[in-house]
Each structure stands twice: as structure tokens, then as C-alpha cells.
Amino acid sequence: MKQAEVHNYLRRFFQAGGAEVLQSTPPKLDVQLNKTLDLELMNRPFYWHYLEKTGGDPNPLKMHLSTNMQSTAKAEEKVHFGSPRLHQIFASAADKGAVTRLYEQHDEQSQTPLYPWLGLNIRISYTCHRRRDDLRSFGVQLISGETIDAFMKRLSPLPLVPAIPDYTFTMAHLIQPTSAVQRIKKYLLDDIQGQKHTWANEATKRMEEDLSLLDRFYDERDEGSDAYMLEKEAIHQQYQPAIELTFINGGLFYLRKDTGAHL
């Protein structure tokens, strides 16, 4: 996952959660949290319990994040794919249902149709004795069926708002969101199948070598023992290659026709 995608994901998360984005100039992201996000992310239960008892004024914290892994600024928290903070934010999005609905803002003074897109962020985990995670985003236009990659990145510069703007109506979708999810899944699986998986071949080779060593360590009469079976299962769990797909979040995005044509 590219750091620019991490930055865009973070910005969208905080905007959807009602935080005030103070600065969003990659790689820096400064946000003023609200009470809800402070409670979820900042681990200050005693502070909020004290305020409830005393009736004091809440003072949510600010977050100063950076997706530049070379940054030496002590006041900035470095965030990257696999970092504890990003996993915490993924979990928060999942707990909230991870679905949003946004509309493209425009200045038209006549009735303007907005076309529905389903957008999904998906984590792809390549696991063996090591682990690599990628975050991919896809969009499906729910009338034409057009499917595009890097969807959230393409949405990044658009003025999106949570309430439908004036002089606007939404077009009814012809493709059900559940069908669009299956299209994205097929698109992604076809892409994965076309990749070279040397990592999986290397992991399988190492697994076979360790199993061979295990067999040499135990003689034939011990190969049915509990100790042998436990060690064999541990080797399989350590090296067995697997690819896991995890839904992170998504939403319905209503865009003007010409906007969708230029994504």
C-alpha cells in the first residue's frame, strides 16, 4: 500500500467521523478530534470519567500524523500500513459499520443528476512465515457496471458532502450493491491469479525442508506421537501460504456524469 493511499484513507476517516481537518498536505495530516474520536482512539478513559463526574468542559486532543516514514519530527506520529494506529483506525471503521454515503457538491442552478458508485476498500494479506498487507480500493458504477481501480485516490480531490445538495437528484441504480461487490471480488481475484507468487513457492519450499528435518528427528515409531503431530502442525501454520481478503470500509458515492467519466 502506497503512503499516499494511507494519507487519503486517514483524511476520509476523520472527515466521516466529524473531526476538523486542520492540515492535509501530504505527508502531514493534522486533525482536531471530537469527543467520540478522542474516546475511541486516545485511550483516556479516566479523563473522560473525571469530566462526567465534575461537569467540566471537554477538551479533545489534536492528532499530528505523518505518512513520511523518514520524518524525524517528534511531534508527529508516523502511520504506515501495518502500524498499530492504522489497525486501530481500521477496527474503528469496522465497528461503525464502515459504510458511508456522500454526494458531489456543485454550483449548478438547475436540476442535476448524480450517478451512484459503490466504493470499497479491501485489505489483501499475503501470509506465510512473513506477512505483507496491501490496501486496494475499487469503484463500480451502479448503472453502467464500469469498474475502476484506485477509486478512493480518484475521489480525493472531489468536494463530497454528507447531505444531498440543492438542485440535485440521484439516479436509481440498476446493479444491486451486492452484485457490485461480487464484481469487485472477481476483478480482484483475477488480478491476484495473474500475479507471480514467488513468495508462496519459497514458503512452501522452506516448509517442506522443515518437515523433512522433523521426519529425520523422529524415528518411524514416534511419527504418530502427539509431540510429532504438534510440531508438524506448527510448521504448517508457520509456512503455509495464504491470501486473505478483508473488507475495510466502503460507501455509496453519488457523482455527476462528467465527473465519473473522468475518474
TrEMBL record:
InterPro entries, sorted: YqhG
Source superkingdom: Bacteria
- Provide the protein name: YqhG
Q: What is the organism of origin for this protein? A: Natribacillus halophilus
One Pfam family in the UniProt entry = YqhG
